[in-house]
Amino acid sequence: MRSKRPKPVHQLTEPEFETLFPDEDACCAYLVARRWPEGVRCPRCGNPAVYDLPSRKWHWQCTKCAPGGNTGYRFSHLAGTIFENTNKPLRQWFKVAHLMLVSKKGMSALQIMRYMGFGSYKTAWGMCHKIRTALMENVEKLGGIVEVDETYIGGKDKNRHKDKRSGKAGRGAGGKTAVVGAVKRKGNVVARVIENASRKTLEAFIKETVSSKVSLICTDDWRGYDGLDGKYPHGVIDHSKDMHVIGVVHTQTIEGFWSLIKRGVVGTFHKVSRKYLPLYVAEFQFRYNNRRNADIFGTAIKEC
Ligand SMILES: [Zn+2]
After folding, report:
1. CA 69 to ligand 1 center in whole angstroms
2. Distance in Å, CA 53 to ligand 1 centroid
3. pTM value?
4. What share of the chain is helix, strand, coil (3-state, %, to 5)?
5. Distance CA 214, CA 28 (A)
6. pLDDT at 239 over 90
7. How far apart, in whole angstroms, are the C-alpha atoms of residue 129 and residue 123?
8. What per-residue confidence (pLDDT) applies to 159?
9. DSSP secondary-structure letter at 32?
10. Does 93 have pLDDT greater than 50?
């Protein structure tokens, strides 16, 4: 039923990664070029007048922060990034980020630990989480045809349909957590963990993520979406009547995104606690929104 999903673009292959990043210096130069495409600036005050510290590579001193004194502000390429204050070389960070971005359903900290040969699970877990935090992005408001839907992640499968939307989901209800998402057809997705699927919550999410000039919002017939009528052009699919597509009205794009996350959470991560689910959602959202970005790796590093 689902038609013509765009093929993901070519990403960095393993040999390309090795060629691009032969050593730590190559990674430092790459980070500097991504952070400061117009030249190094002071991370504290934004001043472009900084000078190299001759005694330390990849270190600079700002001419404005405490000028003249010998206690001027010195910083490195890592200052203010997620890589700061860690004892792992940048090259290992890059490798972990690369692995996370090329795997469609993500890679668990356990897989990362084994692949990277790390001695500790905590190390792998901490690195993955820092990278996920960096991947949290602000997406422009969605226009055109937008599909909105919610889903419930975690808990027991057999109960999923029964207590979906009971109002108790995510709190009790088999440990499920509610996630709402909006996707522009052939465009970006925005997904977020929510407390409940009430009308108030859903409408607030739509107001925040969907442009008021949207040409159509497609949802199913959950009453939480009833209030959209009159406010937006609103097309409704009644799944209970076994209807799934009426002309352009359907929610199959967002359903495809849900199945990707669920396969990731079940198959790769096995279980994700409610506390950390927003980070995993951000990771899947970032991969989805950069699926046609050949420079997805560079885009991610820039955000770190
Ligand atoms: Zn400064």
Report:
1. 13
2. 14
3. 0.88
4. 40, 15, 45
5. 43
6. no
7. 10
8. 45
9. H
10. yes
